[in-house]
Hints:
The protein is mainly α. It has helices at 3-27, 40-67, 77-102, 124-151. Helix 1 (3-27) runs antiparallel to helix 2 (40-67). It starts with a helix and ends in a 5-residue tail after the last helix.
Amino acid sequence: MKLAEALALRADAARRAEQLRARVAASARYQEGEAPAEDAAVLLTEAAEVLGELESLIRRINRTNAGTPLGTGGGTLTDALARRDVLRLRHATVSSAADAAAGDGQRGYRQLRSELKMIPALPVAELRAQADDLARQLREVDTLIQRTNWEVDLLD
């Protein structure tokens, strides 16, 4: 099985576990004289099985990520995932700063000449260029990760 397939299975298992959790909660109590919609004990057992499968997948995925070297610049797939996460945070921070300095979402005009003028404290154009560069780096790292996910076999 390829790593990408395992990632899809992990997402499905996580969704299934969440659905089962909600169904257990909905069936955990019922009114006297009525029957519960579903057997909460059976649902709990099913949830335990799904969570066991999920744990196994997560362990295998993590081992594969940590043991998969990337050809460009060294490092592992885990390193690339960390880089992607931080690039997303950097991009969001720089974009937010540029938006705030540009006055996005704020009243940008004065009704009276006596009102105070708002002046940006940061260079908007430079921040936008920096955000564009971060977005490019993010795309490159994400493409590398996605390609690797489809090339690498899942470890046991």
